[in-house]
Design goal:
Helix 6 packs antiparallel against helix 9 and helix 7 (208-214) runs antiparallel to helix 10. This protein folds into 2 domains: 9-127, Dipeptide-binding Protein, Domain 1 (Dipeptide-binding Protein, domain 1); 179-327, Dipeptide-binding Protein, domain 3. A hairpin with a 7-residue loop joins strand 1 and strand 2. It has helices at 54-65, 74-78, 104-108, 118-124, 179-184, 196-205, 208-214, 238-241, 252-265, 281-295, 308-318, and strands at residues 9-11, 19-21, 24-29, 35-40, 82-89, 92-97, 139-145, 149-154, 168-172, 270-277, 299-306, 325-327. The strands form 4 sheets. It has a 4-stranded antiparallel β-sheet, with helices on one face. The protein has a 3-stranded antiparallel β-sheet with strand order 7-8-9, with no helix packed on it. A 3-stranded parallel β-sheet has the order 11-10-12. The protein is α+β, with helices and mostly antiparallel strands and 328 residues long. It has 11 helices and 12 strands.
């Protein structure tokens, strides 16, 4: 979102360790280092055509420095430093600090400390909706397809007429939490997953449509790496994708074949650990669904959660030792 919003200051592309002007053209500090006066650029517009003024700066800084507002990045950095923000006139603001500190300006230049439009905050209450993505930056929000793509277009009214160099940006969202990725993390060099028929049984048993619908609230497209609606020139047609083994509905045919394969190659089935990161429902919900689905073909899974660091160490160790740990 940094391309949509601007800050008072910014880190420069030529020297990422040095900050310089952005919405503030210049500034000066008082002799005691407790007060900073910022002179704002004139003629800057928000993406909806409204003028940018000092009122926007005050509203943004008052918001993130309020004790009632949870801002884990900018607010956490500025709340201990800023006492108050005052408007001098439409193009000048003064920021009073609680203590003189050299970290104030670099903190203000952080990509987390962007200036939002006062009229948007008053209208929407927060910036969580696509319609609220109105900034003064080099790119304007164009469209968002949930689970697929975010698109920005060049801001023709950006205060620097030489920028941006690009006409637009598309950010494609690859839903990595797909069961396809999970299946790739089976221990394919250790029994029973060294047997391709067992891996095929798992592939057939997983109901991807159910996982996307129940765990991800239909965000993304199951069974695809590239969404045909977004990448029509490269992706397989959905009709073809949905007829593939493991993706076709209803699941009875795939489950019957998966049961037959497990009984043939691992009679009586087997137990395994399903290890996920301890980061809440985002990871545990799909893992629990996977366990339920695999139980139908004789694979008895047990959910384990681990902190990320411990999980990484275990995954490294399991690469050579533990044959039946399925890392989702």
């Amino acid at each position: 979102m940094a391309g949509i919003y601007s800050g008072l200051l910014q880190y420069g592309p030529d020297d990422p360790d040095q900050w310089g002007p952005d919405l503030a053209e210049r500034w000066q500090a008082s002799a005691d280092g407790l007060e900073y006066t910022f002179h704002l650029r004139r003629g800057v517009q928000w993406h909806d055509g409204q003028p940018f003024t000092a009122a926007d700066v005050k509203a943004s800084l008052d918001r993130v420095t309020s004790p009632e507002f949870r801002s884990p990045r900018c607010g956490t950095m500025l709340q201990p430093l800023v006492e108050r923000t005052d408007m001098v006139d439409e193009h000048t603001v003064k920021i009073r600090l609680k203590l003189a500190t050299p970290i104030f300006l670099p903190t203000l230049a952080s990509a987390w400390c962007r200036i939002a439009a006062k009229h948007v905050l008053e209208r929407d209450g927060d910036l969580t909706q696509p319609k609220s993505a109105i900034g003064t930056g080099p790119f304007k929000f164009k469209r968002y397809v949930r689970g697929n793509v975010i698109e920005w277009e060049r801001n023709a009214n950006y205060y620097n007429p030489k920028l941006p160099y690009l006409d637009g940006i598309k950010q494609f969202i690859i839903v990595e939490r797909s069961p396809q990725v999970a299946a790739a993390n089976m221990h394919h060099q250790k029994p029973p997953f060294d047997n391709p028929e067992v891996r095929r049984a798992v592939h057939l048993a997983v109901d991807r449509q159910e996982i996307y619908a129940r765990a991800y609230e239909d965000a993304g497209v199951p069974c695809t790496i590239l969404d045909p609606q977004v990448h029509s020139e490269y992706a397989l047609p959905m009709e073809e994708v949905q007829q593939g083994p493991g993706c076709r509905q209803p699941k009875e045919q795939d489950i019957a074949e998966a049961k037959r394969l497990i009984e043939q190659h691992v009679p009586g089935g087997f137990d395994l650990d399903v290890v996920v990161r301890a980061l809440g429902p985002f990871y545990t919900d799909p893992a629990q669904l996977l366990i339920q689905q695999l139980r139908r073909i004789g694979i008895r899974g047990t959910l384990r959660t681990m902190e990320s660091a411990a999980r990484s160490l275990r995954a490294w160790a399991n690469a050579s030792r533990a044959p039946c740990n399925w890392r989702v």
